[in-house]
Amino acid sequence: MQESPQTREDFGPLEGEVMEAIWEAGAPVAVRRVVDRLNDGRSAPLAYTTVMTVMVRLAEKGVLRRRKKGRGFLYEATAPDAAGLAVRRVLATYGDAAVAHFADEARADPKIMRRLRRILEAADG
């Protein structure tokens, strides 16, 4: 599995691998599925409990959401990718100031401004 540079910066190595596996799944997943994905082709397999601990900690950090299913849990990412998590973190930390700076940057680049307008128009419906 190839991690994006963004993912490596935001997470530790195993956290990044777990997040990539969850994003690739595209749907809520059980720990076993993530373990199987991570161990595919790995010479020294990861223990189930190791991956489970990482996923629990990511849920505690708000990066994953989990819900009970049978005796275990299903996990899903709270954002569609590392960029989504980064944006949420910036907004939570800097709030309106981050939005204002983003708008200023977008105004300075007509291409970004057009893309932003299209996104906003699509959201308005």
Explain this structure to me?
α3 crosses α4 and α5 (82-94) crosses α6 (96-108). Strands 1-3-2 form a three-stranded antiparallel β-sheet. The chain has helices at residues 5-10, 13-25, 31-39, 48-60, 82-94, 96-108, 110-124, and strands at 29-30, 64-69, 72-77. It has two domains: 5-77, Arc Repressor Mutant, subunit A (Orthogonal Bundle), CATH 1.10.10.10; 95-125. A hairpin with a 2-residue loop joins β2 (64-69) and β3 (72-77). It has seven helices and three strands. The chain has 125 residues and is mainly α. 66% of the residues lie in helices and 11% in strands.
Helical amount: 55-70%
Poorly predicted runs are: 1-6
Structural class call reads mainly alpha
Task: Give the averaged pLDDT, no decimals.
Answer: 90
Largest sheet: 3 strands, antiparallel
Which secondary structure elements does this structure contain, and how are they paired or packed?
Elements: H1 5-10, H2 13-25, E1 29-30, H3 31-39, H4 48-60, E2 64-69, E3 72-77, H5 82-94, H6 96-108, H7 110-124
Antiparallel strand pairs: 1-3, 2-3
